């Protein structure tokens, strides 16, 4: 799921600049997914490391 979606409302009516902005959105979304995945793995590792409670 995208963190931020490109929309025509962000357009500056310049194909080159719009393309750069769209690439930036893609990079931000990729980074966001990586952060979420890492947090999920870390959370699972911490839970798996905890001793079971009686």
Provide the descriptors you would attach to this structure in a database record.
mainly alpha, rod-shaped, 54 residues, 1 helix
Distance between the termini: 38 Å
Instruction: Give the SSE string.
Output: H
Query: What's the number of helices?
Result: 1
Uncertain runs are none
> In this structure, how is the largest beta sheet organized?
none
Structural class assignment: mainly alpha
Level of helix content?
55-70%
Strand content is under 5%
Number of strands: 0
In round numbers, the mean pLDDT is 88
Shape: rod-shaped
Cα-atom Rg, whole angstroms? 18 Å
In short:
Helix content is 65%, strand content 0%. It has one helix and no strands.
Please render the helix and strand layout as text.
Layout: H1 15-49
General description of the model:
The structure is a single chain. The longest helix is centred in the middle third of the chain and has 35 residues, at 15-49. The relative contact order is 0.12. It is built from one helix and no strands. The model has no long low-confidence stretch (mean pLDDT 88). 65% of the residues lie in helices and 0% in strands. The protein is mainly alpha-helical and 54 residues long.
């Amino acid at each position: 799921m995208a963190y931020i979606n490109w929309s025509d409302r962000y357009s500056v009516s310049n194909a080159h600049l719009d393309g750069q902005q769209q690439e930036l959105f893609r990079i931000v979304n990729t980074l966001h997914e990586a952060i979420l995945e890492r947090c999920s793995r870390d959370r699972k590792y911490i839970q798996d490391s905890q001793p079971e409670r009686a």
